[in-house]
Amino acid sequence: MVYFVQGVLGLARLAVSFYLKDDLHIDPAETAVIMGLSSLPWLVKPLYGFISDSVLLFGYRRRSYLVLSGLLGAFSWSLMAGFVDSKYSAASCILLGSLSVTFSDVVVESMVVE
C-alpha cells in the first residue's frame, strides 16, 4: 500500500509544480529549489531506521511511526490545499509531505525485512 501511495504521489508532484508555477507565480528556478528541498528527508533515511528501531512510541516500534507518518502526510497535504499562499509555506508543506513518505518507506522496508 505504501508503494502504491508513493506512485500516486509522483502524479501529485506534477500538480504541485503547476500549482507553484500558475497559482503562486513562482519562476522555474525557485520551483526547482523548492522541489529539490523535498529530497532532503531522503538523504538522512538511515537515521529514521535507527530512530524507529531504538525508540518505542506508544509501546510499538514500527506501527506507531507508520500511523504518525500517515497523519503527518495528510496534515501537510491538507495545509497545502487550504492555507498555502506563499513559496515558503508551500516549501514547508512539500518538505513535511516528503518527510512523511520517507519515514513510512523506512518503516515498511524494515517490516518487510522482518
Automatic annotation (TrEMBL):
<dbReference type="Pfam" id="PF03092">
    <property type="entry name" value="BT1"/>
</dbReference>
<keyword id="KW-0472">Membrane</keyword>
<feature type="transmembrane region" description="Helical">
    <location>
        <begin position="33"/>
        <end position="58"/>
    </location>
</feature>
<keyword id="KW-0812">Transmembrane</keyword>
<keyword id="KW-0813">Transport</keyword>
<dbReference type="InterPro" id="IPR036259">
    <property type="entry name" value="MFS_trans_sf"/>
</dbReference>
<protein>
    <recommendedName>
        <fullName>Folate-biopterin transporter 1, chloroplastic</fullName>
    </recommendedName>
</protein>
<dbReference type="GO" id="GO:0016020">
    <property type="term" value="C:membrane"/>
</dbReference>
<keyword id="KW-1133">Transmembrane helix</keyword>
<feature type="transmembrane region" description="Helical">
    <location>
        <begin position="65"/>
        <end position="83"/>
    </location>
</feature>
<dbReference type="InterPro" id="IPR039309">
    <property type="entry name" value="BT1"/>
</dbReference>
<comment type="similarity">
    <text>Belongs to the major facilitator superfamily. Folate-biopterin transporter (TC 2.A.71) family.</text>
</comment>
